[in-house]
Amino acid sequence: MIENRIKILRAVQDWTQADLAELLGVSRQAIISIEKYKYTPSLELAFKIAKVFNVSINEVFTLKEDDKS
To answer: How many CB atoms lie within 10 A of CB 57?
Structure first.
C-alpha cells in the first residue's frame, strides 16, 4: 500500500481539498479519494503533488510493506 501525507501537507499550507485540486487541475473528489487511499495517483500526478508542495515525492508518498508473518 502506498501511504501519503497529503492531508498533513495541506494543513501546513492551510489549503482545502478544493484549493489543492484547483492547483493540480483535478477534481476535489480525486483529492478525497487519494487521501482516503481509495485511489492511487498516477506517477505523473504524484510528481505534480510533490511539486506543488515543493517537497520530494518521498516526502509525500511512502510504500508501506505488508506484514507477512
So the answer is: 15
Q: Are 11 and 54 in contact (CB under 8 A)?
A: no
**CA triple 60-50-67, angle to 5 deg:** 25
What is the number of structural domains in the chain? 1
**Model-level pTM?**
0.89
Counting Cα atoms < 13 Å in the Cβ hemisphere of 50 gives: 16
**What's the CATH number where 28 sits?**
1.10.260.40
List 8's β-bridge partners, or say none. Answer: none
- Is the pLDDT reported for residue 17 higher than 90? yes
Distance CA 6, CA 14 (A): 12
